[in-house]
């Protein structure tokens, strides 16, 4: 089974699903990415399951994501967004993460500076709700926020924590290794092998982004690494089939490691 753990989709009908961007550096998209387009690409690439990650341009409105899960429950799982500073984020989670809904929550904290507020007592009800619902947590973050995420993960050992994107600069950041060590030292932290083609400075198969992920694999092992395509952004640089092959043919992996990275890890940690 091939599982792509990182794809975004948005509707072709902005009146029904209006954009509500919450990240200043991510503007509303201009290219189409309806779920039907992704399904066609999945079929051509031989991808069995995809984890749909709520795009930040929809903000806290997860309705389109939920519609996709309802229509194709055997093909998709969902990662939602809720406002972690809202008065009652647990109620928001209950709305989006009930039966047949999302199975994870994402935090967009990249370019937001100090993430220490996640450790505040005011956030405890949110993380208690996450544990009660059996959700996983994903982080769109800066590498410098790793100590906070490692400390938070250590507080919640029953919850899978997943680092999904650290920004393009991480591939050229000499300080990254010490932060990778801190994250890898917490057993419930996993990492995405993300085909960030838009961050690459070399053409396909993007050899300049391979060394960073090689260091990730060396620290986390394949049992804590899962493939993601970064769809549809990756389609600006290569085809979806090529993006899947980038993970499937990642250098210096044994066959069992490939099986885990391309589906086994996700199936286990995300309870697919």
Overview of this protein structure:
It is a single chain. The chain has 272 residues and is α/β, with parallel strands linked by helices. It has one domain: Metal-dependent hydrolases (TIM Barrel, Alpha-Beta Barrel), CATH 3.20.20.140. Helices cover 34% and strands 15% of the residues. An eight-stranded parallel β-sheet has the order 1-2-3-4-5-6-7-8. α1 links the parallel β1 and β2. The chain is globular and about 45 Å long.
List the helices and strands and how they pair.
Blueprint lengths: L2 E5 L27 H11 L3 E5 L9 H9 L4 E5 L8 H8 L7 E5 L15 H10 L2 E5 L5 H10 L5 E5 L10 H9 L4 E6 L15 H11 L4 E4 L11 H9 L6 H15 L3
Parallel strand pairs: 1-2, 2-3, 3-4, 4-5, 5-6, 6-7, 7-8
Keywords:
single chain; 272 residues; alpha/beta; TIM Barrel; eight-stranded parallel β-sheet; 9 helices; 8 strands; 15% strand
């Amino acid at each position: 089974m091939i599982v792509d753990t990182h794809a975004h989709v948005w509707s072709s009908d902005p009146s029904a699903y209006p954009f509500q961007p919450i990240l200043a550096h991510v503007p509303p998209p201009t290219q189409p990415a309806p779920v039907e387009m992704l399904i066609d690409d999945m079929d051509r690439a031989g991808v069995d399951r995809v984890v749909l990650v709520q795009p930040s341009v929809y903000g806290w409105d997860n309705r389109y994501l939920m519609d996709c899960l309802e229509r194709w429950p055997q093909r998709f799982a969902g990662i939602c967004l809720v406002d972690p500073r809202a008065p009652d984020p647990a109620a928001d989670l209950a709305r989006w993460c009930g039966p047949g809904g999302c199975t994870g929550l994402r935090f967009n904290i990249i370019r937001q500076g100090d993430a220490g507020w996640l450790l505040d007592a005011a956030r405890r009800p949110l993380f208690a709700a996450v544990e009660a619902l059996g959700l996983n947590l994903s982080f769109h973050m800066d590498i410098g926020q790793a100590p906070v995420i490692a400390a938070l993960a250590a507080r919640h050992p029953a919850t899978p924590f997943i680092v999904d994107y650290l920004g393009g600069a991480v591939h050229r950041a000499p300080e990254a290794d010490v932060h990778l060590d801190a994250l890898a030292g917490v057993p419930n932290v996993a990492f995405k092998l993300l085909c960030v083609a838009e961050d690459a400075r070399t053409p396909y198969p993007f050899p300049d982004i391979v060394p960073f992920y090689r260091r990730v694999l060396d620290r986390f092992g394949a049992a804590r690494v899962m493939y993601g395509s970064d769809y549809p952004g990756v389609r600006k640089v290569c085809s979806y089939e090529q993006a899947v092959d980038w993970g499937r043919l990642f250098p210096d992996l044994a066959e069992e490691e490939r099986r885990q990275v391309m589906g086994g890890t996700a199936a286990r940690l995300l309870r697919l």
